[in-house]
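Anyone have tokens for Sulfide:quinone oxidoreductase? Sequence:
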Amino acid sequence: MGKRIVVLGGGTAGTMVANRLARRLMDLIRSGELEILLITRSGRHVYQPGLLSVVFSEAFPEQIVREEKSLVHRDVTLVFDEIRRIRPDQSCVQSRTTEYPYDYLVIATGSRPDFDGVPGLKESARHFYNLEGALRLRDALASMKKGRILVVVEHPHKGPGAPVEFVLMLDDYLRRRGLREGIQLTYAFSDGRIHFLEPVADWALSQFERRGIAHQPFFRLEKVDPFKQRAFTSDGEEHPFDVLIAVPAHRGAPVVMQSGIGDDRGFIPTDRHTLKMEGDDRVYVIGDAANLPIPKGGSAYYQSEIVAQNLVSRLKGLPETSVYDGKGTFFLGSSLREAGFIAYDYGSFPKFAFGSEVLRWIKDMQGPAYWLKVRAIL
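Reply: yep, here.
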């Protein structure tokens, strides 16, 4: 019997690593010596950075959604199932009805916003973290003429530039529609700095002050009253709103919590260079599922390359020598016309450029390029 690599999760990281492996190991797969099994819950694959474009009517849903089966290499076995337990002690993952043994496991289960962590938040807040949420937020903003918009941001969250990017794009969106003067826009964040990267925080703060975007640090949301439309903080302050947009703290996937292999927030302890789960040489963790000291998002492309290269080496009897250096990149829209670009890794100070129409054009090209990247063609 041949060996089996199970890739758990059909988002960006999981699909990308499965496709990279299939393209490099076709000879082993077709000879029956290897199976690559990609397990995912949903048949729909969403280009998540495109959700903000949907919010501001710059893209239609069909432009950022494709069928997962259309993206997966023909030598990958694609299974739609909901995994409930990861069992490293038994070298398998389990759904309600089926057990999938593995020789090597790649966990790419991502992260999710925790709207249940604050009473009343789920009933009150809009968001842009899935297609349905982006569409509801689009419609809410399109119908708004005046009032108060409160954006509440907690850490950690995926999409390292998304909250700041959203607020700056929203400001531009309202100005273009001639509505900005009648709308109070407030960005409230749980930390003392607008963004975790200091250069981005300094730049964003200057933009907020220039554009009249109110900002409030150390905003610790305690509860929300969906009927009175009031947000309450831990220091007893009350904040009225007409539209509440939330970026709640993210947690790991439920399957990680249920399996007891994550930390208290459901992220898997992972070696920062090998991307292996701590304590298990046969389990790799990539994307937002890992507890690495880097932003959630912006690194799956680089991590999938490292894991694929090391698994190829391992299956061919060679040493695993590829090392992940913490590299990640993301674009940050500063308006509907301009964008910035940020690159970072474990060891160097973030490199950045802001306020460029050329970078905005390049950012817009990432959508079409994504479908080639996720198929491991680029």
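The domain at 115-249 is CATH 3.50.50.60 (FAD/NAD(P)-binding domain).
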